[in-house]
## 1
Amino acid sequence: MVSGKVEYTILKDEVAIPYELAMGPTWTRFFEGLKEEKIYATRCPRCNRVLVPARSYCPRCFVETDQWLEVSQEGTIVCWALTEYEYFAIPVKPPYIGALIKLDGTDTNFLHLIGGIDLSDPEYVRKTVKNGMKVKAVWNTEKKGTIMDIKYFEPVR
Amino acid sequence: MGRPVAIIGVGQTRHGRRFDVSYPELVKEAVDALFDTTGIGPDDVDGVVSGTMPSMMEGVALTHFYFADVLRSVGKPIMKTETCGSTGASLAITGYYWVASGMADLVLVVGSEKMNEGDSQATMTTVLEPFYQRYFIAGAPGIFSMQSQEWSVRFGIPEDKIRAAATRLTIDHHSDAFDNPYAHIKKKLTEEEVNNARIITYPVRLWDVCPNSDGACAVLFASEDKVKQMGRKPAWIRGVGYSGEEYWFGDSDKVVWQSAIQASREAYRMAGVTNPIEDLDVAEVYNPFTFQELLFYECFGFCDFGKACDETLKGTFARDGKLPCDPSGGTLCTNPIGATGLIRVSEAALQVTGQAGDHQIPGAKLAFAHAMGGVDQYNAVLILGSEL
């Protein structure tokens, strides 16, 4: 055998598989709501929590949650992160702020983007975006029935 | 409670960028190391447990089948356990259950990953739910940054204090890694270098983040009879805890983090640990991010909430401190994900049997091992002791 540092061959491989993911009745109804600029939640009949996005059962009480309600499009920032790195297969392009938002009157945190501010300077973003800050949904004009029908949440001025 | 179970041997590969071997060859390296150091052969093994991160990591599905030959599993039962970042700890728990149940006396447990062969952050993105969450929290840094950010604001910890504590941790761990022959990244860092490193996801900087590593780890779990028969020094499994949360990030509190708290408390209860900072001699905390490591100290009761930075800066968790954490350099210096949790368990076993070499904590009798998996969804803790 060869002694010293040996470079072995590398096989270039790729696995690309298309999928068709069934959304089922709950997601379908939730995304139909987004098309009409409404954010829907469901209420758990046992713990009384308002769960957003709407879901068909409570993950803690294990009971059906069939009481639908439209919730506020305003809320407060719980936490946020400015991402400047582009990840493979992610439709949102950097820079962007991912954030958990507590929509008024709900009991779970809603994950979405914070926008409507200049994201080019991290120091500016850090000084501007604060936990507890009031934000409201901004809608895309063209609706596709996806989570991106909400463009982002922007600070309430 | 089942039968007593001990670890009677461990084997690790050299971790790093391992394009010198194929993936099965890498796994074989850990299994060979285990059999070579223990003198135990595959004929004695009753069953095999294997695990990795999601199969997208290396592009081959059912990796336990891919490794069947090098795991010496022909003619034996094989199981796969896969729980994302906590895979290694879940593998250990699977091996523990198998022996504790009385259904096996000697079980080979192997965790592995070759992260450099694919796109690790893309793989982690596929862990996220596809209709809603995957759009916003790509990869690991975004999730952990949000969690740390919420923690710092909720407990009013000044940013400069967190930065100082995180800097201390990464300098210590990368220096400690020199004493661990298997560690991937070993470096003498300066405060200036750490504090000015490039931002990954604000305020997380380059040296706050673990590397992509290739590596494997193999561990033998044995019944009490087998321990006597083999004449190996045992590391007894004294406590096991595993706890989970809802799938969606946002449904549960990741600061006063229930799965981390519960997993540790279950393990403490089983092991009879009442005051972890006093009772434990060493801890191998899963620390892919410095900021998250600080939060873990608090969730595990190593100190009060909001106090991890102060304690870290006092040296409480350093090699010569009250409770040395990650004397191996930890996940921060070496992260072949499917193996990482099992490496924490192996390190704990080496410590309580006095075999940790240059990073041995003198006289360690009770050790803590931990791993976390999913989108902050699961936590696993094992307590290992030199005595049953």
## 2
Amino acid sequence: MLTTLSRVIKYGLVGFWRNGWLSTATIAIVFLVLVGLGGLLMFNSLANIVLTDIQDKIDVSVYFKVDAPEDRMLEVQRSLESLPEVKSVEYISRDKALEEFKEQHKDDSTVSQALEAIDSNPLAASLNIKARELRDYEAIAGYLEKDTYKEITDKISYTQNIGVIDRLKKIKGTVEQGGLLLVVFISLIAALIIFNTIRLAIYSNRDELAVMRLVGASNFFIRGPYMVEGIIYGITGSIMSIIVVTIAVFYTAPYASIFVPDINGWTYYLSNFFSFMFAQVFFGVGLGVLSSYIAVRKYLKL
Amino acid sequence: MIIFQNVTKIYNIDDHETVAVEDINLHIHQKEFVSMVGKSGAGKSTLIKLLTGEEKPTKGKVSFGSYNVNKLKPNELPFLRRKMGVIFQDFRLLANKNAYENVAFALEVAGRTQQEIMEFVPQALEMVGLKDKMRNFPRELSGGEKQRVAIARAMINHPDVIIADEPTGNLDPVNTWEILKLLLKINELGTTVILTTHNKEIVNSINKRVISIEDGRVIRDEEEGKYILV
């Protein structure tokens, strides 16, 4: 069995080598598909990181009047927590707010002097609310504007970033859809080209195939080499694509950091390298094997 | 060991039915040497294709040893074919392989080890008298030598039967006799031989069983027969 397997691989390699230019062209198209796929994957994961990063910074804050009683405020917190749209509510008491304020401005002498001059806590207590979904923020803000709360609340602020996020999401969606369409499209072309390459290989090997059948070669022995060729196209294409994408990420990562300072594209890429590599090889080999298989089924009589 | 039972083969080409062979009943025993004679298009090649499993009969049953040939699945056919050695008028050698590699190929596809190949191939080529031309490519060999390489390849898996489909059709009289002697020798060593030919001389000189086929039917089947043209 091992002897047969090694011979099947050998014949596959020989066929691949004999087909020189055809093999090169086939690898080129597989490479193109995989670069497209790689770019799409990178874009998708980076866009997701950026989006979650921005989303995390969004919240609704409700500031209470300075004289609002604490139990009323906690009551508001509890009622908010019972809403299904709400993910979390953080209560920041007046003392805590002052503490945080002092902490933030500890190096600023004018601020601390001013606080000392007032000699009382000028800050209001507040609730920090995070919603599960972006679109829920508006509803939560509306809920807080009810008349019952009017007498204790001072103002409700929610960040204006939501418009930006919506736009980002739209761009991401469009790019992903377009990219996916493109990848599917070139995948189909690649499949057709691999299919045709294998078909030609079968045609040019017809004498050899006739002799194989004549002397009793097993189906595996007859078909195997063409599947091996398909695998080689996939592996070679994916190795080339991985190299190119790696170089591209290395050189473009610094530019990406300009937009999103918190993210280092290069380290992110490296930390996800293996899953990325796996996706590339899996897709490339899958494409090669599947198209070869169809060609072999269609054109290789046993 | 080879049995054709009421075998009929009808080819359906463009809705036009052509009867290739009709109601064939044959029994070929082990170690027999059988000549099948008849004009071109009489149905000899069809019978051979039915035997090797290349074609399935429209009616009837073909069996070879324990194999029911027309019931074999595609993945079982290779095992049947390893028990048959087939040689053709056009030799069917691979042009880009030399004599040694052509013979070795039959062992490679059967999954034999490199060691076995290195041992058996020279033996087989020696048997057909081509030991000193092992490294020659088919284009460097004469017609008779090419056919001997084909015979070595057919014999290498120790088949139960050698099927020779017009093996001398492309050869001059001297080479024709060389090939025939080789087939007789193979038969003496215990392998069944089925020879199809329309060479009257060789059939008449060997005094073996002759099956005459005409228009898809067996018209004569004689032990120690002669090639009689009707």
## 3
Amino acid sequence: MNKIVRSVIKSKQVMITITIIGMLIHASAVMSQDFSTYHNYDAMTRELKRLVSENKDIAKIESIGKTLEGRDLWVLTIANPEGVPMAERPAMFIGANFEGDHLIGSEISLSIINHLLKNYATDDAVKKSINDHVYYIIPRMNPDAAEGMFESIKTGRKSNMNEYDGDNDGRMDEDGPDDLNKDGYITMMRVKDKNGLYMIDKDEPRLMKKADPAKGESSGYAIYWEGIDNDKDGFINEDAKGGTDINRNFMHDYPYFKDGAGKHMVSENETRALMEWIIKHRNIAIMLNFGESDNLIVPPGSRGTLSSDKGIDQINIANESYAGAGKVGMVNTEVAGRFGMFRMGRGSQDQQTAQPTGRQRPVISAETTFNLADLEYFKKAGDIYKELTGIKTQPPLRDPKGAFFQYGYFQYGVLSFSTPGWGIDAAEEPTEERRRPAAGEERGGAPQTATSARGVRGAGSNSAMPTPGNSQVSGIDKNYLNWLDKNNITGFIDWQKYTHPELGEVEIGGFTPYEINNPPASKIVELGEAHAKFAVRLSGLYAKVKIAKTEVINHGGGLFRIKVEVENEGFLPTALNQGVTSRAVNPTMVQLGVKPETIISGNAKTNFFQALAGSGMRQKYEWLIKGKSGDKIELIVVAQKAGTDKVNITLK
Amino acid sequence: MEEIKVKTIYKTLACAFVVVMLMMVVSPVTYGQKYASDPQFKVKLDFNRWHDVNELWDDMKRLEKAFPTFLKLGSVGKSHNGQEIMYMTINNPETGPELSKAAMYIDANIHGNEIQGSEICLYTIWYLMENYGRIDKVTQLVNDRVFYIFPTVNPDGHQYFMEGDGGGARSGHVPVDDDNDGLYDEDGPNDLNGNGVIEQIRVYVPGKGNMRISTRDNRIMEPVGFGETGDYIILGLEGFDDDGDGLVNEDGPGSYDPNRNWAIDWQPDYVQGGAMEFPFQLPEANAINKFLMAHPNIAGVQAYHNNGGMILRGPGAESMGEYPASDVKFYDELGKNGERILPFYRYIVIWSGLYTVHGGFIDWTSDGLGMISFSNELWNGRQYFTSPELQEQTKDPNSPISGQSGDFFFDDYLEFGDEYVDWKEFDHPDFGKVEMGGRWKKTRGRVPPRFMNEELAHRNMAFTLYQADEMPIMKMGGNKVEKIGNDVFRVWVEFINPKVAPTITAKAAQNNVVRPDLLTLEGNVDIISASWINDAKTYDYLNPITQEIDQHDLKRIMIRNGHPGKTTRTIQYLVKGSGKVTVEYDSVKGGTISTTFEVK
């Protein structure tokens, strides 16, 4: 904990030093800079601009839009502009910090940028990926929220600063958390309460759990987020400042009217800017997103479902403390009164209801599980990931409703990954034991639990409150706490007595925000290097179309037969199955440059194939055309995410 | 609001017109003659012609000029092609600012080809203004309500329909690559002979064709049976291969559905064709949504479409579930009366009665914004022959007014052949000597015959005004103070919503999208308890036990699901202390009311 704080303070000096050193020593392949710090927005921006200005020939920085507080959303394009036009090259999108309290992804992205630029001259794989392909990197998607990490009181808010009446009571952002014990962190309060549902975990007294009356356990504790009931409505911290969580604001499995989801899909500056940008960059074939969900450490299971998304119970429990706030004031006068029963008869109601006429189209619904045929590619990537990063155990995660990476796969139709970017592996213990099986395997593909949707709440409160008493799923509190202990990380503040102005005697303590979603800054360099290598390795998987064979047969009488084979030289298919299903990936076009009426038989002038598997799979075409010897005919193959190819065929 | 640029010529014309109108109105008085005619209109508009966008805007400007107290013309932004998306606000400033009164939002023409809704919008503005102060009901509506009227929310589509042949105008004009060749909208149909109609192309091949001319009517083509021969082949629609890819007319303008781009139950294109890439991607939808979100006073919505004769309500898809029962009740009341106002129209639910719609406009306004929303599908083909006798005849295959024959009969005898384009010879660049024709003009079929449009406009307006009238309006009932003990009083205050619609729909309460109604009490008293009395009339006899309001701040009580329609509710306060108190009921869509009285 202190390390982070210290490193942040340190960062300014460090950077000045770095710049000086950088000027003196020409940067070599070895990373010469100290990236082991979390950057605030201004520091991040300076760093990005510096990197670009030192590598103008292969890097550029642009803004895709501005946040509500006026911060630019930077996208770096790393590619050698010479050669094939960028829009025709397969590209990788790297995005981070959709969730405001997830900053490790930003730092890893920065490391990736640094790695690519520094090693371009010396590393063949890096060079090839920059010459032949494109990287688009957005290190910080939610900068307004991310600034929270650098504020004096750390709330761990995920949401941007768009105002939102979280409990819909007609007052905006009126009851946020308060740092009562002045330790700089918003943690939790536990209060002795006969009506409380929770008890101290006997095995680990720092943790709380739900009492099970069937086991003879008695409860006696209520848990709240640290703060007071600012608006005196009976709920603590139910409507904090902000906003919308950028990673809950996209269209796949969108959590309508839920916590942090915004007023509607793509309601935010950040989300709209990204959507407008991404649909103009159809050459993106792989997305690597950093966030609080994972499909790399544990790839989607055999039923196409994501791994379980266990969070921290204590957080879910605290979230439940204001569960009822969004429901206060429902009036039902219909059933009141002695004769209420009689008045309930409402015989006339259904006779009036609009009647169906029966004409119906078949119901189609959106895919919600990964296409089984695409799973092998996720698995393959997952294997490489584990090999290069060594991460085997997921840190605290949450349910990815409305997350960007899900859009990337289900609607944009490409291989789209999400990783927290770090793990809580304990080296001395067998990892298998800690590894949680995929949801499909463990729970028979049961729907994700509602409570795990939230993660750290702190300041990011919103409407559609959680349901009380719902956090039955055991979180990873204990494993995470063990990991903190073993690594000497102060991510848990011990309970300490405090006299609360409303609740009387309470104890304040618990997991600290930011640590839950970010490893210590000292890990950044190692994680950054590993992920940079992973990104480069991924870029070796792109599909690549090639006109592998052309043959001309002269049948005499001005009749020629042209035979062509188109090959996918890459590893990935030209379109994933979901890319075909979603119609998001264009079919590949194979077009013979002749007038349509000169084709006597065979294929049409313009042909399309939906997808061609990689590793040398071929697709054949054949035309019988009228022409004369010496005619030059252009044949083109245009794939959206697998490049283009073109040859001139001479009739002879 | 943006300044509206008027072409000078139109401005001059409009001014001249107003002057002429004034003379017409003023002159009879000057001469002191007595006229038996109806009163003259201040602004003369025609409702038996189809207007393009420019003329719609011009007419709106003329109206604004003639009725400056009530009308305010505005724009919410620009369409893809850069046209303003204009709207008229009707508000009587003397009865309060806009946001203090329930508003009715009316739009039309989201599908560019569905143009008659635009005329209804214009008609509605015109009718309300011309009859304000003359017909009491109209006066009351304009005084009580606010109207936001958008004659076209797809000006690009509307203009394309009017200027072109009518094809491809449903969509907006954001380019879409229909054939995935990397080119956008590069090969649409072409009006080769320049007659404004995209005709069919047929080629005469005596004895070798698969189509023949019907013996019933030589304008009807029919396929030949097996083993028979015909003299014609139909080649397709008028056009050629613009981009030389071997396909004809495969990538026309747009081709998405602006009414699938809204943020409720939005589904990607492979589930809901035409949805585009994300909700509110379209500049028109985005601009309208911003307007709606900035106007929480909008209680009712009507979005005019064509055709089929329907009064539609959501939900658009079965998976969205039925509306809560209390909502169904008032929708049914409005819808069933709508069927009486609009003969040949049926009141139905979109998904079950029409087809499934994901991401539709009125689903968004209803579920996402808590507005009571209808969409009328204007014009029903049965309205060509309306009497019960003629309706019977249309069912008899041998009658001259059944099926296609009926279409020709109507065109021949009522429109004097104006709508049908007959076959004519043509020299086609690709096919040589062909015949083109055999098509109805764009103005026949989905829109009513011009002479019937005014009735369509009036009846649909009447339904929408009925809806506007039945939006919530909170009224104060009586109040009563009774001394219970030393310094303790029982205070009753009555609130009435005499209209059909509640201040907050159950759907809106479910989704938490409308701010709860707020009941506040100001005064130097302490509230010991507050509760709702269900039926104040029977209270003395039946003494129903009321449920206490379990809220911390009883001086500011939230009513999350609002005040139901046609309901009187009584709040009972038990207060300690005495003196003057003010009780206020503040609802976003039903207005704010208050009463001040003495507790003693």
## 4
Amino acid sequence: MDFTLSKEHEMARTLFKEFAEKEAKPLAQEIDENHRFPRETVDKMAKLGFLGIPVPKEYGGQGCDPLTYTMCVEELSKVCGTTGVIVSAHTSLCCDPIQTYGTEEQKQKYLIPLAKGEKLGAFGLTEPGAGTDAQGQQTKAVLDGEEWVLNGSKCFITNGKEADVYVIFAITGTIEKRGRTTKEISAFIVEKGTPGFSFGTKENKMGICGSSTYELIFTDCRIPKDNLLGQKGKGFNIAMHTLDGGRIGIAAQALGLAEGALETTINYVKERKQFGRSIGAFQNTQFQLADMATKVQAAQMLVYKAAMKKAEYAKNPKISYSVEAAMAKLYAAEVAMEVTTKAVQLHGGYGYIREYDVERMMRDAKITEIYEGTSEVQRMVISGSLLK
Amino acid sequence: MKIVVCIKQVPDTKGGVKFNPDGTLDRGAMLAIMNPDDKAGLEAALRLKDEYGAEVTVVTMGLPKAEEVLREAMAMGADNGILVTDRVLGGADTWATSTTIAGALRNLEYDLIITGRQAIDGDTAQVGPQISEHLDIPVISYAQNIKVEGDSVIVERQYEDRYHVVKAKMPCLITALSELNEPRYMTPGGIFDAYQKEITVWGRADLKDVDDSNLGLKGSPTKIAKASDKVRKGAGEKVVLDPDESVSYIVDKLKVKHVI
Amino acid sequence: MNLEEYKGVYVFAQQVDNEISSIAFELLGKAKDLAKDLNTDVTAVLLGSGVKDLADKLAEYGADKVIVVDDPELKVYRTEPYAHALASVINQYKPEIVLVGATAIGRDLGPRVSARVATGLTADCTVLEIGDFPLQAIPGQEQKHNQLLMTRPAFGGNTIATIACPDNRPQMATVRAGVMQKIEPIKGAKAVVEEYNPGFTPNNKYVEILDVVKAVTDTVDIMDAKILVSGGRGVGSPENFKILEDLAEVLGGTVSCSRAVVDSGWKPKDLQVGQTGKTVRPNVYFAIGISGAIQHVAGMEESDIIIAINKDADAPIFDVADYGIVGDLNKIVPKLTESLKAEIAAK
């Protein structure tokens, strides 16, 4: 067992860090304040291949491992939680299912431009009546000749209005099993601009304010028959498996937020003076920092381990990384919330002011305990594996 | 076209500076980066590669650890990397450094050699022009723009209050300013590819037409007599006053010092 | 190499458009000190086309002798003919010391020449003196006397090193502009003028100058200013530099700035003070809204009087300021301008 990162990974981190500091950090406060999607940063990331890090080169990606991708989201989130989730949602929730379940034609048509960053991706599972409970879905897809006809809506969709390609889940029938009727769910690829596909309200959020979170509305939206992703009726599995990967991305986002808050706070307590000394000289500050740093380190271990397990899965699809991903997300998200809250506290009054980064980080951190499976869902996944 | 870019791994001067007992730099103890002017030189080469097509080879002289900047350069798009490293080369001043690098470059084919204007550790700006002298080719220092036209380069050469548009026949050496361009980032895939490539490592024996007496600490005409942290003038008075009092304070001082 | 053969302190007398650069006079001032210590004389090397008339001016600033290489090939600076000329002079006359300005010309010419005559070159020196090498005698090692000890900052001004060139001649240094003091010119002074032409045969190293584009600037060179009112990022905006300009105007000074200001695009690069800008030593230096990063301090700490105004009481600029005022520049500077106006009007 080796806890040392390879030189490649170290260098990749240097790259992500430099990019984050130079390109994402200067915008972080402004996009938060104006609830503005940082299109210019996305364009720059596209050119550098950041939008296809774990996608194989033959599909326009960078051909790197999940750990490299994880580190990218981590470093971006250190300075800007919004930028982190844009990459995470695009890569884990849109590129990944198309790469895993898509036909060769679908990969050629959609994965290549997504991985090159020419197109941005999104994922639509959640509905007003179906968040954690996927069976609560209402959106329907009916085959009509050579087309699927979609009706319904999706909510809280990250990259909502900014994306070009959407992986959408809809009910395609019912299954009778042991006398119970359940909904049969399938996955589809929907392009922006398809007649009948429109956007509803833009959500006004507590954090990650620069991310474009929208309601998607489908009204007799007709898509080609070939845009069914994976087998008909396998949508639930596709969704769950995709979310396993997505959780690693969100765990990385949470980890980055915690690290960013910790770094900011360390710098702050060295400078800020009270009672004639820097507040870093007080034992309370020191002990708080020690706890924060230890938890951040533990979170990083879990996140990296999950990423490495996903790499093993790529070689052997029988391996599951579901539990590792759940643990990583559960822990990193809770650490992010705890560390950012402590960071605000150590900043005192300034921590409560918009001008200070930790204020934004604390708001950004909260969502990591909620989306792509709440902490409660993660606990269900983990305990489920313990008690099966 | 074949372009050779000379790059140097330097301590990031933001991180503080450490010396060996003999007065030479303790490079191992400091955070290492690619020298900014060299990075601009590399970017210039890569842009020529994008525009005209070229094979870009990066060369560095240093400790084995300097391999890192070669990998970084290759992750940005350089094709080959050569590390010149040997114990006998340590402690070189600009003369001995330039004879060493010239000795390495004599093994290579090149149309253009690009170096950074100066390194942030030594700030000398000497190695580029000295290499050109050893190789008997023209030098254009302080390049702020580079174009290729046939077998010549056309370069905007910066001076304090003007620039010259200079045309030189290749092969030729150009020293680049960090203002020349904004160097590109590496790409994630480029990093992993760079580590798959072979780096050529050359030692003393691989240097062509170089006398031992021109290498390393012994071959350096300049010797360090003393090196130390800079001693600064101490702080004077510091006052916290309201604006009107501040003004009177300054006016009084200017009067006392006969400025007004 | 017989080191004894090499005599005299030589200065490369840089001229541009047949006008001698200020650095040449500064170097002559220093060369005079060094020559005195070595009991020798000062020679200026003047390279150009139609430049012979400039020799008297060099004499006024301390040259005992002027070697003129006058040739059409030297009309506009190009590395090769200049390097050929200076290297030929060195080989012919065998000077003990050669000083070159650390200018955009000198930092190109110096290394090329030093490599050609196979000697050491120390870049960007700020202190030059005659002394022993090693500084203290070391048993078993010869201590050489009357060596040129060249002191220079390195690592962005974090360190200084003193360097000698004990076994090669000439001892060559490029010297930072604005550091050495020129002497008060001696009117009517004459130097021995000697013309020398090594012959110029164009070869592959001769480049072609297609165009000379001069930057349009009507501002005073900040290196010549007696009073500098320098602003940093703390000034807040390019528009707000107006209050600094007003202050400078009242005092007959010039506005300069920190690197952060240039990086933000508020002011042009030629107004930048610091390691990557210019080294200044005015009588009074106002540092307004400048935090005092080490690279800035390296370019202004030799100023006679440093007055700093900054709202951050912990700003490092206060470590070098003679008079530091912790306060809001927006409130203090306009009032200071008004007050000085009144003071000066009352005189």
